[in-house]
Design brief:
The protein has 117 residues and is mostly helical. The chain has one domain. Helix content is 80%, strand content 0%. It has helices at residues 2-20, 33-43, 45-59, 61-78, 85-105, 107-116. The relative contact order is 0.15.
């Protein structure tokens, strides 16, 4: 189960790097230094939240998995990714996949699975 957790955390890190690419559009707007830094900070707020949730998932796997699923729901509503299927798959798909993998790899889920048998 550690491999599943490592895979999920690796996917979370790569997904965070992927989302950081969207912040690069601020550089082509011709802003001054202060406006550029403020705009870059605002663009990277979702990445900071995702980084904190990834750290939480590293420490507490089940809570982190649930947090990734909730973050997927928040991204769906806030960024309106439900409007186009491909955008939904690109933005929300990894969040749901990571959340599911983390929940599957959590110790409490494994205990629950053993008690069910």
């Amino acid at each position: 189960m550690k491999n599943i957790k490592k895979t999920a955390l690796g996917l979370a890190i790569f997904f965070n790097l992927f989302l950081m690419l969207f912040a690069l559009d601020i550089f082509g707007e011709g802003y001054g230094l202060v406006e550029l830094l403020v705009g870059l900070f605002m663009h990277l707020i979702p990445n900071m939240i995702l980084g904190l949730i990834t750290f939480l998932a590293y420490k507490k796997t089940l809570i982190g998995g649930i947090a990734f699923l909730v973050l997927g729901l928040i991204f769906t509503v806030f960024f309106h990714t439900y409007r186009e299927f491909i955008v939904f798959i690109m933005i929300n798909g990894p969040l749901y996949l990571i959340g599911g993998l983390l929940i599957l790899s959590s110790k409490k889920f494994q205990k629950f699975k053993k008690n069910k048998k």
